[in-house]
Amino acid sequence: MPNQYVPRGTGPWPVNNELYTVREWFAQRSGMEEGRESESIVRLVFDRVSGMTRMDRLTAPWRASESDLERLALLADRLKGGEPVQYALGEKSFAGLTFQCDRRALIPRPETEELLMEALRRAKGVTGDTPLRVLDIGTGSGILPIAWKSHRPGDEVHGLDLQTEALELATANAERLGCAVDFHRIDILQQRPAGGIFLSPFDVILSNPPYIPQSDRSEMLPNVLDWEPPTALFVEDEDPLLFYKRIIEGCGTEGWLTRGGLLALECHRDTTKQVVDLIPENWEAKERFRDLQGNWRMVFARS
Q1: 100-124 tens-digit pLDDT
Q2: For the chain, percent helix, then strand, then coil, each to nearest 5?
């Protein structure tokens, strides 16, 4: 079998391999302007390449090897081309786990981690450690069901998505992290989605579905628009609540969610009130919930 080609970075190189010099060279080569976000990206890259924390790099002190410089050169060129740092590095931390991250699925966001942690808190408050049956709709890279399983290993956890490539990524993440999650390719917009998983109701249903109207495209940055999968981001302006309507309908009339079960939804900050209004009045509870930035971002309900 022929050797697999491994790309190598090329010059120009920094004048020496000391930390400060290499950092300045990397920032200039990647085209980043000074600022808090750029500083965060540089730190993330140097953590990964050096295998050390920022404090360890300062106290060691760290000096870049030839292979380090080659990796940094490649990463700088990718970042200069607009690629998000998470895709360039191929990984993203979420809920204490490190997930493989690439263009097959969205980059995990802090708000989604907040949804997870609040849903875990609410589930434990009602059921304690009693095993639950849990479903994530629109699972992408599998972050929600895998992280849930890592916190509650006794639960039966499933994730579904329509995109085969995303499910391949989710499966790889679950296997690498040692979390037994079952993934399914199902289109929930079918009136009666095929799939045996719906033959029994779930105790918890999570979802971070597509919710950005197409009209919002003009307000979004190129490193999102040009890189992340549009099918996981956008819905048509004529029916921006399409997925929420279907999920709530499935829970309410098709038996997806057990009586008293928890529904946890991530939403556009401008539509949480509309999503709450979709939930039938005979449900036990329904409420909006703010994220750490103070935006209305989540909806929680009990059937």
Answers
A1: 999 999 999 999 999 999 999 999 9
A2: 45, 20, 40
